[in-house]
Amino acid sequence: MKYVKVLLDFILLSVGDKIAFYRNIIDKLTNNPSFSDPDVSLLEATTSVNDLEAAVLAASDGSHTANAILHDTIGSTDRTFRTLAAYIDRKSKGIESTILSSGFHATRQPTAPQKEQFYIIDGDNTGCVHLFSKPTPRAGAYIWQMYKGSIPLNEADWITIGHTTRADLEVSGLEATAIYYFRNCAITPDGKTDYCAPVKKIVI
Known about the structure:
Layout: H1 15-29, H2 42-58, H3 64-92, H4 96-100, E1 118-122, E2 129-133, E3 141-148, E4 159-164, E5 168-171, E6 179-188, E7 191-192, E8 199-202
Antiparallel strand pairs: 1-2, 2-5, 3-4, 3-6, 6-7, 6-8
Helix pairs in contact: 1-2, 2-3
């Protein structure tokens, strides 16, 4: 049996995705007989995630102080879950199914090294995101669309937010803490491709 370890991939998640990921870990560890004595109590972990969520909301006004506090809170929350990850590693003894029962990812999972077809990172300023797509062969341009709140029921409701010749786009002026969905398609000599699957992002 191959010895596997806990992946620390959660460190690279956006803050909105971190919150969801960390809450899932707390849920998976609650009453989990394999992990009955964590080095960090689940109450302490929950408080840490609650503080992070509050810091995200406070930073929505764009103030430098609130953003500095958010950065510090992200760091402290990540450290809490690094400690939990080390505990899971120690208790699971390299058994993949035991690791996965904690909510963390394991090093043997095939999805870890794959490159995303479409991904989003936070921009330098509040309400700003940067969209990236895997380049499409022979593409001369890309069309980018978004929708706020939820995936629209009708194709016509998607809002076109830009046309580029490169497979990336920076979007600003978004509402902080709101949920947005983004997608794109390419224009090639053969015509317009299908739009990619929508990608969800909580804006900070």
